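Structure, all three chains, one model.
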Amino acid sequence: MKSVEEIKAAIESAVPGAAVEVVPNPGPAAQHSLRIAPEHAIDIAQFLRDDPELALDFLSNVTGVDWPDKEIAEKVKVTREVKKMVDGPDGKVEQTVQETVDETRKRVEPGCLEVVFHLYSIAKTHGPLVIRMRTKNRSDQVELPSVTPIWRSAEFQEREVFDLYGIVFTGHPDLRRILMWDEFKDYPMRKDYVEPDDFEYEPTPHDEVLKRAQKHKGREQQTGIRDQERVAE
Amino acid sequence: MSLAETKSEKVAGWNRPPVVEPDGEGELLEVAMGPHHPSTHGVFRMDVALDGERVIRLKPVFGYLHRNHEKIAEGASYLASMPYTDRLDYFCSLTNNWAYALAVEKLSGQEVPERAEYIRVILAELTRIQNHASTIGFLLQEMGASGTPLMYAFREREKILDLFESLTGSRMMCNYMRFGGCRVDVSTAWLDATRKVVAGLPGFIDEFEALLTANEILMARCQGVGILKPDLAVNAGISGPMLRGSGVNYDIRKVDHYGIYDRFKFRVPLGDHGDIYDRYMVRVLEMRESIIILDQALRDIPAGPIMDPKAKIRGFRPKPGEAYGRIEAPKGELGFYLISDGGPNPYRYRVRPPSLINLTVLEDMCLGQNVADVVLIFGSVDIVLGEVDR
Amino acid sequence: MDQQLKIELGKQGVFVTTIEELYNWGRRSSVWPMQFGLACCAIEMIATTMARYDMARFGAEVFRPSPRQADLMIVSGTVTKKMAPQVVRLYNQMAEPRYVIAMGACAISGGPFKQGYNVLKGIDRYIPVDVHIPGCPPRPEALLQAFITLQKKIDGQHLTGEDRPRFLDPNAQGEFSVPDQGEHDLEPTSNTGVWPVPITIR
């Protein structure tokens, strides 16, 4: 198969205006990927499937990945002017000196949701080509175009990504929850998902379970009602 | 969703299931088959709309066995997920182990010693045989051959499970493979026992085939039913015996040459029509090819270590990066996609489940067929709910 | 009746029994399980009915597809929150006397999948369980052992008196509440009539 850079060039010549970016994979697997802009995704997907040389007719895997907002603390060197008493020729003299100080600054890198596609070619028996797409943010702009019209195998997998990550695939014919029930509100595979507190009994609690049990104990002491009685109310 | 809605949505170029018009008058009968239904392979539901006996619409409903495998794996170390992979497709725990080990070996760049590769091939092919035998047994069970073919299949399966148990300590949940090798070495006695079992397998398949292959009822119920066209199969991501039953020559053992499959001589059986009978035949022939692979592997297995000496068990932290590793599991292409952020547990852990994706075309195959055939078509897909829902 | 006298009479060819014993003997020798598999354990359940382990020896080979005809529900595998209402509903549809075997770690407590957001931490939160068998999955021998335990339990049930089983007590609860699937979790998270929330830390 062509290298990722060659495929990038091929896409850019076939789909004018397509923004394609090579994402290197530093690991030993060295499966580099291409990040495409959602605006041209359908055209690019059609090209990848129908191009006689690539012929990536088999969409193997569709994955959602959650990248939460990251708070990055970085050290910045700041130069300030400080007045200091310096030994001069005639005793101490006040002088302005430049001094560099390390300062920690925090900035928040906005998170996003990502979809990863693994493409293979059955006709040419090559692959995989890894394609990625990112949403604008994690809260309100979570739409991405659906590739189900191009590769039918995305149908259930996109529903699963919608169910577990909350990415809305526009153009999907039947976008409903697939694994959880319809009334469910959360997106459980997101990193910030909080599990329901279904208190569980364990004779020898430890770690997480112990923390949870202690939380329940605290509530018992505050209210004076034991869990058992409260549920019975 | 009503029928009218289904028709109104037209996406250009979309390989959608055909619309079947009810021909008679009167109302459609909506039947929910499952999640507790004698003909389903587990907790699976099909919402079927029937016009008399004909299926007009079929919507599969999943999630009744969604056990949060991926979420649990993202909170556990790499090795701690190995026992969970056993429980994905609980018929074929060893191939699941292999797929996961392969993905992690790609992620961390580990090598597998030759003897371990041979052991993996032997175990994977034994798994394939017992899976295909059980699948055919269940298919016949759903056809109404209550019990007997399944008894034959399980008799043979028990012999193979005895081998698994004596090697790994468990009948079904083997938890055997490790990153860079295998957990325990096989003994000469085990290899001899395996040779004995493998020597008995062709006789079993002959017996099985004498009962089934030319059976009039089986042919009448299976031939020309549930046809899957090759172009749709490729487009819908179908893999495994279903894809080959439709005549597409694609076997990951031949394409990727993962492990040491390039050393063995075997053929890839292909179907002609893509109906249930072809899928059945492909499975029978694959069992025969597996025996040929087993014979070669049991003959050539070398002595040597079974673990990569550089492999790290404790404090295993792959470098940041990602990897997608896949194998030809008995059900189809089983893949694991892992993203590492350098920590002790994977940042993203994804299973590419062949059972779920093979169900994409269930509706296409069933539309217009009789409701009794839906059960058969569903059985011929060969799914395990642990893998569909994870 | 005196056991010794009974044995003596037996030697003379006179068979003496009580209605209770005869009734329980009949019940325990034809327990029909429901054809109901959830997950991995279901495969071991099928293996138990197959030729090698042969559950028919205990009079339980007839797996009934309908809950109306079944006496025994083998909860074989992980009960998820999506499936739990259906399991309770199936149990409600079974006719008394009915028994439940919780097969495997998942059915008992959630097992290895206990941390999962969609996994019910034990089916005994909603329905009464008669026999628990641990194991992941339990071997077919373990299921047979559970079955023998259940037979012993049936044998020991008295038809009259305070400790008579539920199906002979007109005031006993026969229907168990089916949980609703809420926005985040099942509602309620357990049936306190069946499973009082235990206190962990003292």
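Chain A is about 25% helix and 35% strand.
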